[in-house]
């Protein structure tokens, strides 16, 4: 279940893990943020298809996840991760690239591209269950309550997906469980729910979405699950309406991770978008 290449870079003093496959125009893949999330769990099944289609797929592990160093900046956790990722991509010297982010990766990607001076040199973007208001609801609390057991991982997967097929697949659950056991990974993922005493507004969830989507200037594809328990109904329509050049695909019978729950459809939709928009942007 691994991609074709794995290597490490030292970026800002942090040992940073990267998966790579293929050659050609670069596509940077930004993974999600649940327990056990990493480049391998989000993108390993997609990367060979990108390579076969003539793209250079690059999937770094975020700071605090996978096999990248386990560091959390409690004063600015999101900003620190985003700056480290931008520095990682810059160190790889990829030039202009397409960026694809799912869940946390998509939300961070949107935040970056909406800034006056984005850190990512993106010519096109794909947001998969990313962006919009992130409610602090029962589903969110379920996936944050993880005891590092296989049963706990199966419960998280059952919450994230509309279908229980993968949550009932013992081999898949064992793989995802193994990925969650990287030293320090549990602590880094758990940090998102910490609230200082007496601060009901603490933690990363349930806060107003201040992203200025109108500032995103690159062609953007949004992919959402119609049955996503971690977002409010219709959130993707609202985000897409605010991005000047946006396309929206909503998958029926799909939860929070369309790239994993519907991998064939997502692969085809992603390659179609990249072929139509990314290659056009590169040639213009």
* Rg measurement, Å: 17 Å
Mean pLDDT: 94
Fourth-level CATH superfamily: Alpha/Beta hydrolase fold, catalytic domain
Share in β-strands: 15-25%
Number of strands: 8
- What's the level 1 CATH class? Alpha Beta
Number of helices: 11
Distance between the termini: 36 Å
Global shape: globular
Q: Order of strands in the sheet with the most strands?
A: 1-2-4-3-5-6-7-8
What does this structure look like?
- This is Pimeloyl-ACP methyl ester carboxylesterase.
- Residues 27-268 form the AB hydrolase-1 domain.
- GO terms for molecular function: catalytic activity.
- Pfam families: Abhydrolase_6.
- This protein is an alpha/beta fold.
- It has a single domain (5-134, 208-283), classed as Alpha/Beta hydrolase fold, catalytic domain (Rossmann fold).
- It has 11 helices and 8 strands.
- The chain is globular, with a radius of gyration of 17 Å.
- The mean pLDDT is 94.
Task: Please provide a brief summary of the model.
The chain has eleven helices and eight strands. The protein has helices at residues 39-43, 47-52, 77-92, 104-113, 138-144, 150-160, 170-179, 185-190, 235-242, 258-261, 263-283; strands at residues 5-11, 14-21, 26-30, 56-60, 97-102, 122-128, 220-225, 246-251.
Features:
Pimeloyl-ACP methyl ester carboxylesterase; AB_hydrolase_1; 8-stranded mixed sheet; globular; 11 helices; catalytic activity; Rossmann fold; 284 residues; AB_hydrolase_fold; alpha/beta
